[in-house]
Amino acid sequence: MIRLGVPSKGRLMEQTFDWFADRGVRLSRSGSDREYAGQVEGAEGVSLVLLSAGEIPRELRAGRIELGVTGTDLIREKLAGWKSDIVEAVPMGFGHADLILAVPECWCDCENLDDLTSIARDFRAVHGFRLRIATKYHRLVRAWLAAHEVADYQLVDSQGATEGTVANQTAEAIADITSSGATLRANNLKILSEEPILRSQATLFANRAAMDPNMKRFLNQLGL
What we know:
Elements: E1 2-7, H1 10-21, E2 26-29, E3 38-41, E4 46-51, H2 56-62, E5 67-71, H3 72-78, E6 86-91, E7 97-104, H4 113-127, E8 131-135, H5 138-147, E9 153-157, E10 173-178, H6 182-186, E11 189-191, E12 198-200, E13 202-207, H7 213-221
Parallel strand pairs: 1-4, 1-5, 8-9, 8-10
Antiparallel strand pairs: 2-3, 5-13, 6-13, 7-10, 7-11, 7-12
Catalytic activity: 1-(5-phospho-beta-D-ribosyl)-ATP + diphosphate = 5-phospho-alpha-D-ribose 1-diphosphate + ATP
InterPro entries: ATP_PRibTrfase_cat (IPR013820), ATP_PRibTrfase_HisG (IPR001348)
GO biological process, one term: L-histidine biosynthetic process
């Protein structure tokens, strides 16, 4: 049995259902929106597991599901060395979002990472502590900043509305996922001019150890 993990609610679930339907496989939720069971029609030996998008990377690596739909950002953030256990089957063409670094709009002299590096150095000298960047994506942000030789900062964990941390004075900058940038602008934040830390989209991933003939047959049925 191939257990397919799909986001359990919202637009991402609906688009995932549509993507599979376009390939002849109908996914549906059993019962009410509060139930997390599902049904699969049009494919033998496949069962549907409804999970939060954030749970799917962990369940894939553990082998409790064999296939899963989640964002590339979540796989790369939550799973160190993910390629040893996970196969990227196919990007699905929806759920696009960028992981970006943003600073207050009023920082007129901060447009890129070189500017931020100078500001961070001066900030530490004046305030006695490193400039704070609020984020949920510690692994990705730390690696990206290290690659760009930015050192005078500290990451602050944010599990709520990251865009509000600057206004609440718990951080000076943020690193977060955005699709349109509207929420950033509403909170008087601007994106630095560099390429995003990561361009993410919904992707179908497979557990590498589960790539047996049945899995390959199902992927072939999907046109992969």
